[in-house]
């Protein structure tokens, strides 16, 4: 029964978070900002106001595929957000610029997350094979190595949280201080950003639950020996 509840949680929580962000985005993508600026214009305006001139803004493919690439110094906005003038698009664009500002200011958590990327990628790819191999072969040391690799991936998920929350906070401050949104539009923008943040919280929670499950299985394996 416990395993059924566990699997229900790791399936339902991410699904609920994904549905929440999509429905919230869809709702506020239909509301145009009073500033009548596209997401691309919002992004470029905030970059200019912060004296950042080495970051380009370009359209990308895919629904909510928006991201900031620190290596190429590019903010990529999905086409709806790049060309659209909605509150949702403005909020998403401002959020990605928040990451660019973090990069320009060498924000500590962003630097830490960048440093963790190789380890987290390795952990995500290898950990399951090591854990499965250790479980099937009864090799506790191999299983433990898999847990360590997986823990690195979990750490990456949790370091991502302050990075994303900080980018959203910067986004709201920038949009308000520059006058890109009015008072009545602030709650709408916050709802979009908060819904997006839920996906990262859900991912971190699921990763933590998986790590705890692997640890409990490792303890059980040692008790059987």
UniProtKB/TrEMBL annotation:
<feature type="transmembrane region" description="Helical">
    <location>
        <begin position="143"/>
        <end position="165"/>
    </location>
</feature>
<dbReference type="InterPro" id="IPR007395">
    <property type="entry name" value="Zn_peptidase_2"/>
</dbReference>
<keyword id="KW-0812">Transmembrane</keyword>
<feature type="transmembrane region" description="Helical">
    <location>
        <begin position="6"/>
        <end position="21"/>
    </location>
</feature>
<protein>
    <submittedName>
        <fullName>Zinc metallopeptidase</fullName>
    </submittedName>
</protein>
<feature type="transmembrane region" description="Helical">
    <location>
        <begin position="115"/>
        <end position="137"/>
    </location>
</feature>
<keyword id="KW-0472">Membrane</keyword>
<feature type="transmembrane region" description="Helical">
    <location>
        <begin position="192"/>
        <end position="219"/>
    </location>
</feature>
<dbReference type="Pfam" id="PF04298">
    <property type="entry name" value="Zn_peptidase_2"/>
</dbReference>
<keyword id="KW-1133">Transmembrane helix</keyword>
